Amino acid sequence: MIICSPHVGVAPESSSGGEVYERELLKHLALLGAEIELILPGRAPVWADIPNWHVSRTRLPRGFRWYVSNLVFPPYIKRVYDRRPFDLLRVHSLRFVGPAALWARRRYRLPVPVVAHHHHVDANWLNPVIERRVVEACDLVVTVSEFSRMQLASDLGVRTDHVAVVYDGIGKEFESQPKDEKLAARLGMRDVKTLLFLGGLKPRKNLGVLLEAFRLVLRERKHAHGVQLLLAGRGESEAALRRQTLQLGLEGAVHFAGFVPEGEKVAWYNLADIFVLPSRLEGFGLVAAEAMACGKPVVASRAGALPEVVADSETGILCDPDDPADFARAILRLLDNPSLGRTMGKAGLARVKRLFQWDESARRTLAIYERAVRECGKGRTRA
Predict the structure, then answer these.
(1) C-alpha distances out from residue 159 to 102, 151, 154, 269, 379, Å
(2) 117 CB contacts (<8 Å, ≥6 apart)?
(3) Is the pLDDT score of 378 beyond 80?
(4) Where are the domains of the chain?
(5) What are the residue ranges of helices labelled H in the chain?
(6) Which of 77, 303, 360, 366 is the most buried if burial means most Cβ atoms within 10 Å?
(7) Are 2-169+358-377 and 181-355 equal in CATH topology?
(8) Tell me, what's the pLDDT at 350?
(9) Which strands, in side-by-side order, build the sheet including 163-165?
(10) pLDDT tens for residues 307-366?
(11) Mean pLDDT to the nearest integer, 127-148
């Protein structure tokens, strides 16, 4: 099968769970034998050694906005089809690529199905204008969780009988390892209990509630100096979070570590005693599953798709995203009972091996693509 996938980016280094998903899924589809025709901005970074990846470049450099990408991509889609007729046109983002793929198919009369991938819906006044119309016009849609499938119906009001759920996978490099003592020493985490958040510092990650919870943890814990919170990542909320840290008197106990490269993530997860993810919205929650693969108990919000990833009271503890005290109780329970954390860590690893594997995700996705191609051949593709 030949798959055309116009893309804003599949960078080898990214703090975006969605971009990691795209990069890994496309790699594993290629390893199954699918030929991937990628269309990328002119200077967008990309892996150079993936078999069956073929990269076309636009004249514009990296950094497309959604209204630019939808104007740029259609003629490039046509050029790829003229050079190498593909079987399926793939949409990695409803807003950034969806209109372009549908316009290209209609304008150039391409006899191929359009299949979209979807993670979650962010509140925006354009959702009914763009996202809803793209979902309705695509032949099939793949979401990464039952939550994201149901959100299409609840937030966009679209039918979901053509929507399939395929969970994310976790790379085999994510595994339990001994603590990297050099990294721990560099961060000042050698002889402390470490709470780790890893991801973008953005509003929906709800990190203000985590800081409030951490203040309560330090108030209750007798040896407060032995617990540290490590925030690994960058984002628009960083300045506000630094101010809140000072206001709460947490300086010295909260560490802003900045961006963590892909190749170092496993070592960072293995620094943690507890992984924390207080997000109000996750279409899947890739970092929670990565932490579980490294044998870490997870304290997360009872929100979005996180209850599908973290089994409450089995692989971690789910909390009210609006209640810092609830998070504090969960964290203290694990700090005061290390054996419970180890038990949850082992259960988390087993859950990842059972449910969240890229090989299986790619096989199921490819089966959905094959179904779309078969139905297109029967004349069922939408105009």
Answers:
(1) 18, 11, 10, 39, 21
(2) 21, 22, 25, 90, 91, 92, 93, 141, 142, 143, 144
(3) no
(4) 2-169+358-377, 181-355
(5) 17-31, 66-83, 98-108, 131-137, 146-156, 181-187, 207-220, 238-247, 265-269, 286-293, 306-309, 324-335, 338-355, 358-377
(6) 77
(7) yes
(8) 98
(9) 53-57, 35-40, 2-6, 88-91, 114-118, 140-143, 163-165
(10) 999 999 999 999 999 999 999 999 999 999 999 999 999 999 999 999 999 999 999 999
(11) 96
Specify the fold of 2-169+358-377.
Answer: Rossmann fold (3.40.50)
CA atoms of 41 and 65, how far apart (whole Å): 11
Instruction: Tell the burial category of 42 from Cβ atoms under 10 Å away from its Cβ (0-12, 13-18, 19+).
Output: exposed
User: What distance in Å separates the CA atoms of residue 64 and residue 36, rounded to the nearest whole number?
Assistant: 21
Compute how many other C-beta atoms are within 10 angstroms of the C-beta atom of residue 204.
16
Cα–Cα distances in angstroms (integers) from residue 86 to residues 58, 81, 113, 140, 232, in the given order: 18, 6, 10, 17, 40
Element (H, E) at 231: strand 227-232
Whether 305 and 284 have beta carbons less than 8 Å apart is answered as: yes
> Using one digit for the tens of pLDDT, what is the confidence trace for 10-27?
888 776 778 889 999 999
Q: What is the dihedral of CA 101, 107, 112, 113, to 10 degrees?
A: 50
Residue 312 CB coordination number (10 Å) = 13
Handedness of CA 367, 373, 375, 380 (dihedral sign): positive
| CA proximity to 368, closest of 153, 152, 139 | 139
Best CA proximity match to 150, nearest among 118, 187, 196: 118
pTM of the model: 0.93
C-alpha neighbours within 13 Å on the C-beta side of residue 53: 23
Confidence (pLDDT) at 60: 85
Q: Is the pLDDT score of 222 beyond 80? A: no
Task: Provide the 3-class DSSP secondary structure of residue 318.
Answer: strand
- Cβ atoms within 10 Å, residue 168: 25
Q: Which fold has domain 181-355?
A: Rossmann fold (3.40.50)
Residues 251 and 37: their CA atoms lie apart, in Å, by 49
Distance CA 62, CA 45 (A): 9
Q: Which residues contact 281 (CB under 8 A, 6 or more apart)?
A: 120, 122, 204, 303, 304
Q: Would you say 42 and 54 are in contact if contact means Cβ atoms under 8 Å apart?
A: no
Distance between CA 281 and CA 308 in Å, rounded?
Answer: 13
Q: Please check the confidence at residue 224 and state whether its pLDDT lies above 60.
A: no
